[in-house]
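Input/output pair, single chain:
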Amino acid sequence: MSLATVLAPRRVKEWSATRWQDAAPLRAKLSPVFGVIQPAGWVCLAAAVACLAVGYLLGWAELIAAGVFLAVIVVIAAVFIIGRQSYAVNVDFSRLRVRVGDIAEAGLTISNTGPRSLLPCTFIVPVGKGSDAFSAPRLKPSEQHYESFRVPTHKRQVIPVGPVRSSRGDALGLLKREANWTDVCELFVHPLTVSLGDSSTGFLKDLEGSPTDALTSSDIAFHALRDYVVGDDLRHVHWRTSARIGRLMVRQFEETRRSHTVVCLSMSPEDYATDDDFELACSTAASLAQQAIRQEHAVTIYVPGKTLNTTTEQMMLDDCSRLEFGGACDPVTLTAATAAQRSLDTSVALVVTGGQIAPDRLHTALSRFSVDAYKGAIRCAVGQTPARNAIGGNPVVTVGRMDDLPAAVRGLGD
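Output:
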């Protein structure tokens, strides 16, 4: 086989691809015309042309009659899609943010804004991966039609709704014209959360910071006096005491620390037995962050590759709704290492994971954080009996449902 024989099909393919790209502007102009023709319509047109051509060439009146009949069918089908549509379409949600299991109701309002009556039309509302279809009757000028529908909220997710499009066509499905009338809007299905109460263990309460056992040369809470060391700030010299005893004495303070809770959420499929276990873990992490935000404490949620927005409770829950479980991702040990490097002021470090995580990996994740931070772990396994143990001296609690979480959080500090 010669080289030319091998390269010929490739050249033809490349030439065809180039010509197809060059014809893009022409295809865009012709799309409104040919885009309305459905596969059945192309078959009907091809059959009409073939019957007419063969009928005239061979002089068969039957084929000519069949060709004319098919052409008339296409013309009649075109009547159903000719004419401009003057609709105003609005999708109104009672709430754009709901919790798992809540009722999400929406209303579809279709109005005729034109001066002429509009024929009946079908409107399609894409909802997530599915869609709902509604039939609008004949509308007179300024007349409206209302339809209500519900969006399923059985699991945590962000559901895109829209764009709403109209669809007009003939009964045989030969021709169909569609037009979009709205933009895409998002419905947030937040994870379930529970209130942990005011006794959430490990959170430091004082707005100016709470004293710790660490001593520093510059802070707010005065501790004692000590001898001056070269390099100490002269502003902290206690001159009256220094004059009395004859040597320089400087103030020593107790280091104060603002509460900063860091939550590391594992998203590795190998740490969870089922998807429901991850949903329980996601709700647990959201509940911990929600409690910290309500108490005006700093909180950061780390997931593989990023941090969630915890500026407000709503933003945090929105980001939790966007989390997608499954697929390859960094292990929780790497997530904890990243959190420890970025959040050096961590006062409380909590690792939220599934019931399948190996103890050594959980111990490694907890050991990434500073010894000064309070550390603990929450294992989430649906149906499991609440339990408490320790790994490397750090408390680890197991929860089997959301109602177990408040007691489990209190148990972290026992």
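The chain has a mean pLDDT of 81. The first strand starts at residue 87 and ends at 93.
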